[in-house]
Design brief:
Elements lengths: L1 E10 L2 E7 L1 H6 L5 E5 L7 E9 L4 E7 L3 H7 L6 E2 L1 E6 L10 H4 L3 E7 L3 H13 L3 E8 L8 H5 L4 E6 L6 E2 L2 H10 L6 E5 L2 H14 L2 E5 L15 E4 L2 E4 H4 L2 E3 L5 H23 L1
Parallel strand pairs: 8-9, 8-12, 9-10, 10-11, 12-13
Antiparallel strand pairs: 1-2, 1-6, 2-5, 3-4, 3-7, 4-5, 13-16, 14-15
Bound molecules: FE2/S2 (inorganic) cluster.
Organism: Thermobrachium celere DSM 8682
Keywords: 2Fe-2S, FAD, Flavoprotein, Iron, Iron-sulfur, Metal-binding
GO biological process, one term: pyrimidine nucleotide biosynthetic process
């Protein structure tokens, strides 16, 4: 059993849990995820690792209520226990394989959409600890849904915000900010975009034009995280891949986003049906 050490609401329907899980904390790397099961009857929920502290043996995860299982999870409190907390799973971010010398002069631009700021956080933290230059863009529907801004700023990078309603940062899309930063003369070796699939699609289209290598994380399309359900199947450069076993990160310029969006819509309809069923 895994104890919840801390629970914090980052926004409405977005909760951060700090879990005591020393073995996971010991080997966690940026980009990886865990599979959580609340109790015997619970479904397996894949969640990206938001932070880890090897000395305290804790791992932080961020849960956004999107369906029946995440709704149940969000109701847990500090002191409660989770039955399974398996991980770390999936491949670590590609830059983890680069040495300090290779990373030294690189410049990264991270683009997070909504709750995508959670998986971005450990990546920026890792790079900043090695002194690597990172700019960060966070986009959300409104100010209340912008999460982890201060935490990311504390890592020593510039954070730019865009909101749909203009309640914080610029009124517009993350792509407007990418364009603006590049037009202002900023250069980047790589863009890392994590968020809704549509956002990653448009960021990738833009960075392709701008000729900037782009990595996306398709963590949001995983369902059971085991390689069994097929929900995370994606075509990358004409080849079939599974996000949970081959990813979750892929070359953003090679992903067939339209295929992913089509399948996600199918699953969303089913989840809405189940949400209504459980709340009856
Ligand atoms: Fe089910 Fe990957 S999440 S196969």
């Amino acid at each position: 059993m895994y104890k919840i050490i801390e629970k914090n609401f980052l926004a409405e329907n977005i909760v951060m849990f700090k879990i005591k899980a020393p073995m996971v904390a010991k080997s966690a790397k940026p980009g990886q995820f865990v599979i959580v099961r609340i109790d015997e009857k619970g479904e397996r929920i894949p969640l990206t690792i938001c932070d880890y502290d090897r000395s305290l043996g804790t791992v932080s995860i961020v849960v956004q209520v999107v369906g029946a299982s995440t709704c149940k999870m969000a109701k847990l409190n500090q002191g409660d226990y989770i039955l399974d907390f398996a991980g770390p799973l999936g491949n670590a971010s590609e830059f983890v394989n680069l040495n300090e010398e290779e990373l030294k002069n690189k410049k990264y631009l991270f683009v997070a959409g909504g709750v995508g700021a959670a998986p971005i956080y450990p990546q920026v933290k890792y790079l900043r600890q090695l002194g690597v230059y990172c700019d960060v863009i966070i986009g959300a529907r409104s100010k209340e849904l912008v999460i982890l801004k201060e935490d990311i700023e504390k890592l020593g990078c510039r954070v730019y915000i865009s909101t749909d309603d203009g309640s914080l940062g610029i009124r517009g899309r993350v792509t407007d900010l990418v364009k603006k930063l590049v037009e202002e003369g900023n250069t980047y070796d790589e863009v890392v975009a994590i968020g809704p699939v549509v956002m990653m699609k448009f960021v990738s289209m833009l960075t392709k034009e701008l000729n900037i290598k782009t990595t996306v994380s398709l963590n949001s399309i995983m369902v059971d995280g085991t390689g069994m359900c097929g929900a995370c199947r994606v075509t990358v450069g004409g080849q079939t891949k599974f996000t949970c076993t081959d990813g979750p990160e892929f070359d953003g310029h090679l992903v067939d986003y339209d295929e992913v969006i089509k399948r996600q819509n199918m699953f969303r309809d089913e989840e809405v049906r189940r949400m209504h069923h459980t709340s009856e």
